[in-house]
Design goal:
Number of strands: 26
Shape: globular
Largest sheet: 14 strands, antiparallel
Helix content: 10-25%
Structural class: alpha+beta
Strand content: 35-45%
CATH architecture of the largest domain: Roll
Number of helices: 11
């Protein structure tokens, strides 16, 4: 379930792979961990942990988004001599805008049973446009990471405290479960190259029907504080995960292998997730002002800015949106650390890559005027990238080479090109009005910083200044963007005026 952006005639149509990308990112850090995730710290790992390990297993799960079966996942655990290994393989096929796109995620984590340390990590994401490979190997107190994306490989060293004890948290809840029981742990996410704190709590012990059989289940919540995501799992008395839910949209359910791998029908998931307004919006692409009263944010207000006024109102949120004013002046320089975060290259925004730098300078030529620069970059990305629904995490170099992608591919390529010429830029995610769906589709666009303010730019729709229907829900890197997972299927529009 991602937004997919296509065009019919002269009208821009909004859906993109953004939502499934966030699900994919979350899968790599969330449910992939939830099969046997985290608690406590390395210091608590003792030699007798060998006696606490579960027996070797292989489980299969059906993956559902918004009630639609989209794929399956295989979870395996084994231990040989002094090494314990957790492995997850996931395959999903998501229909959107008349095409079916596939994604595969594979992750393996290996721990030293004697000291509990995470020794090796492998993460691979593959889709129609290419693959991202991340390999981590323990070197002292750090993990040496090799990140390959878009044909370029980078190395980084990252400290991590994740341990085998962390990986056994849910399994330990089976011992003497009690409502209110808690654990706290570390989870190292390879795709974000960062450590995250996870807080676990037993919410209830209840009877639920799984596979047609009533079972006693331990309900456990897992809060990923850095991402604002809450994951709920049900375990049986042996510590096996029976089902996991994220928000009201994502479900992974234990099933026999044949059933998990069976996809009986394909439904357009993108259309089913549109947020409907009270009435259609005509000529949305030229809209300069829009006011909405929305519900479903769960107390988490969207970010406010000059173009997006946000106000809590009787448990709901009133949004006053306007199109940014035109950009004035010339390209600035930002000495020192100012705007460093939005100018530097990353493993997935490879703005220092020679091909990307060369392309950016060819596109803008000798132009110094910031307004013209943004127009030229917007037009180039819009024309260079052929619209294709891609349910995978994006990287700029791969988009430049493959020339395919949806709104996240458009956005990340624009951001990389902008940074390559010294223009601060970042990705924004949220919803924007999609005329064919007569509602707001999940979407991604870009933002550039100029003349002391951030300006919204939509290269997917060839809008050098994005229209007023773009509602920003999150920004920053993958961890921040993943916050919107909790909003999928929850948002409603009660009032609307222009």
């Amino acid at each position: 379930m991602e937004c997919k952006c296509i065009w019919i005639g002269a009208d821009a149509l909004g859906w993109d792979g953004m939502s499934m990308k966030n699900i994919a990112v979350f899968l790599s850090i969330g449910f992939m961990a939830c099969v046997l995730p985290a608690a406590q710290s390395v210091a608590k790992v003792e030699p007798q942990i060998r006696d606490e390990l579960p027996p070797a297993f292989e489980h299969f799960y059906g993956i559902y988004l918004n009630g639609i079966k989209v794929g399956w996942m295989q979870s395996r655990f084994s231990h040989v001599k002094n090494q314990a290994s957790f492995q997850v393989n996931l395959e999903a096929s998501v229909a959107g805008m008349g095409q079916v796109s596939k994604i595969r995620l594979d992750e393996t984590r290996k721990y030293d049973i004697q000291n509990g340390r995470l020794e090796e990590l492998q993460f691979v994401q593959a889709s129609s446009t290419g693959a991202v490979r991340i390999l981590g190997q323990r070197e002292g107190t750090q993990m040496k990471m090799r990140i390959s994306a878009g044909g370029q490989t980078q190395e980084k060293r990252v400290s991590t405290q994740e341990s085998l004890w962390d990986a056994l948290a849910l399994y330990r809840f089976r011992e003497q479960p009690a409502v209110g029981q808690t654990e706290q742990g570390q989870r190292f996410d390879a795709s974000m190259l960062r450590n995250m704190q996870v807080d676990y709590r037993v919410e209830s012990i209840e009877k639920r029907i799984f596979a047609g059989i009533e079972s006693k289940a331990i309900k456990v919540s897992a809060k990923y504080k850095d991402m604002g995501i809450i994951e709920t799992s049900w375990l049986d008395q042996e510590g096996k995960v029976l089902e996991t839910q994220v928000g009201g949209f994502f479900v992974a359910r234990l099933e026999p292998e044949a059933q998990a791998k069976r996809l009986d029908y394909v439904q357009d998931l993108l259309v089913s997730a549109v947020v409907k307004p009270p009435k259609p919006i005509r000529h949305s692409v030229v809209l300069n002002n829009l006011e909405l009263l929305m519900d479903g944010f769960g107390g988490n207000l969207p970010p406010a800015s000059e173009r997006q006024n946000v106000k809590a109102e009787n448990g709901k949120v009133r949004l006053k949106l306007r199109r940014d004013s035109p950009i004035q002046g010339k390209l600035e320089s930002f000495p020192g650390t100012k705007m460093k975060e939005f100018l530097e290259a990353t493993p997935f925004v490879q703005s220092n890559n020679k091909a990307l730098v060369k392309t950016a300078h060819q596109v803008i030529g000798k132009t110094k005027n910031i307004h013209e620069i943004v127009h030229k970059l917007t037009r180039f990305v819009y024309e260079h990238v052929e619209d294709e629904y891609v349910p995978a995490y994006s990287n700029a170099l791969e988009v430049l080479n493959s020339r395919r992608g949806d709104c996240t591919e458009h956005s990340v390529l624009f951001v990389a090109l902008a940074r390559a010429i010294g223009l601060p830029a970042r990705v924004a995610v949220g919803v924007a009005y999609w005329p064919p769906g007569k509602g707001f589709g999940w979407h991604a666009w870009s933002e550039v910083y100029a003349q002391g303010r951030w300006i919204s730019v939509d290269p997917t729709w060839n809008q050098a200044i994005a229209d007023a229907t773009h509602i920003k829900l999150a920004g920053g890197g993958p961890a921040e963007q993943a916050r919107i997972v909790m909003l999928l299927g929850q948002l409603r529009i009660d009032e609307m005026s222009f």
